[in-house]
Amino acid sequence: MVRIALDPTPYHHTHALLEFPDVAARLGFEHMQLTPHVDFAPFFRYPKADDDLVATLKKKAADAGVKIPALLPVQRISSPDEHLRVAAVRNFTRVIQLAVEMEVPVINTEFSGRPELPEESEDAFYRSFEQLLPIIEREGVRVNIDPHPDDFVEDGLEAWRVIRGLNSRSVGFVYVASHTFHMGDRARTLIPELGDRLGAVYAADTFDHHRSHGLRYITNPPGNAVRVHQHLNIDRGDVDWNELFSALRASGYLDREDALIVSNVFGEDENADASARHQLARIKELADS
After folding, report:
1. Buried b / exposed e along 14-50 (16+ C-beta atoms within 10 A)
2. Model confidence band, residue 214 (pLDDT cutoffs 50, 70, 90)
3. Torsion angle defined by CA atoms of residues 95, 42, 40 and 128, in that order, rounded to the nearest 10 degrees
4. Quick one: how far is CA 127 from the chain centroid?
5. β-pairing, 67-71 with 31-34?
6. In the predicted model, what is the mean pLDDT of the chain?
């Protein structure tokens, strides 16, 4: 049975952290992925949750009937800047501790290196995991990694090669649909390659920035070294949802007990409730078709 989780990012500025489980339940979700929040594990900084906050959040989720299957931290674990990398390892270690305390079995994250320094970033990534992997494996946590636009590895197949190089079944892949066109638009061939190392799928739409002679999005002046994408409601962009879910179905992912699909729309904050309900219904439809 596929678990469909809400990414509560659109509610970060309108609701308190402890209100998120009630928000998810009100919108019809039974699961919620906990994303970087200033009161829990903010972007690139040391986590701010203590034992009391963890206990309260667990109770809020239980009372709302909402499960938290995954945490999403973002730390500079592949930074070529050694000072930042060391800090990221310390911060990520604390995130692992929080996952264990929260009884959350999965951590979804990003490489967080720099595309202009790919070799240095890859070296930093492996050095970080020399320290993190023993902790991850000891604690029984699964870590999945997303090749994010503007990272040292953006192509999906190359990202899988980097992950595979760790030689650990405790580390898998996050397939983010809204990164499809940065990853090489190869769902049909990449998902079978990932096999059971596909750990999570994020469902949001985006435009193909290659279309219209590269003018699908426009930045001024032309030629800026930017990566452009968006997280829109399903069917508002160019992602081929039938192809993606056909690949997921053929690979057996949709039949797995641990299958997780996260609705992570960021471009609809003014219609956040309607967007979340649309996403839930549409993901169910695609998963069941």
Report:
1. eeebeebbbbbbebebbbbbbbbbeebbeeeeebebe
2. confident
3. 0
4. 22
5. parallel
6. 95
